[in-house]
């Protein structure tokens, strides 16, 4: 494992990063301490960065800042594509329950600032890719939780985002469904060459999906990073680092 640092160091030089965050600061009115205090990171094209950390560490604040949903007090957020095609998937699907699966996915493209990137054929393509064609005309209120979250991902992908932001997207689902969707998303990311910024407190989810894992330790940002596919990092090792101990635990949610 690498040495402690406040930011995620870049991977070896290559094309312009999809996302670069430098010195980002955010303090909420009335708060006694900053939520973000000089956070740095680099996300490269085709990479999934899994940001791991306990509740209240500021990782979701960072995601919301990247999405433009939180005004910054300082620092910069830059995108490799200046068109800045972003899409966000939250824990709750946020779908229109009375509309069909097809209609909900189409809304992702029709009413976005960059809707010029969207065409109707994209909906049919996504229905096929996401395995939702049999439910295309089904109102989403009749779907299971796992199916509804697939629709939410499809809606986000309708405009071909340069960066897909995922904030605990599967945490409300039962363990079996959550595990199935993690594997599904990993395969989807490979198939579509997605660039993903994932926030999670589930160690196994980070290991399953992340090309890199950053441990978000608090306002100053990242205290550690791992490349699980290359260094064989285990959930026990990550938990040991988090707890400051030499041994892991069977509880892999932090």
From TrEMBL:
Residue span, ABC transporter domain: 19-243
Classification via InterPro entries: AAA+_ATPase, ABC_SmlMolc_Importer, ABC_transporter-like_ATP-bd, ABC_transporter-like_CS, P-loop_NTPase
Assigned keywords, A-Z: ATP-binding, Nucleotide-binding, Transport
PROSITE patterns: ABC_TRANSPORTER_1, ABC_TRANSPORTER_2
GO MF annotations in UniProt: ATP binding; ATP hydrolysis activity
Xref: PANTHER family: SPERMIDINE/PUTRESCINE IMPORT ATP-BINDING PROTEIN POTA, SPERMIDINE_PUTRESCINE IMPORT ATP-BINDING PROTEIN POTA
Protein name (Swiss-Prot/TrEMBL): Nitrate ABC transporter ATP-binding protein
Organism: Kocuria dechangensis
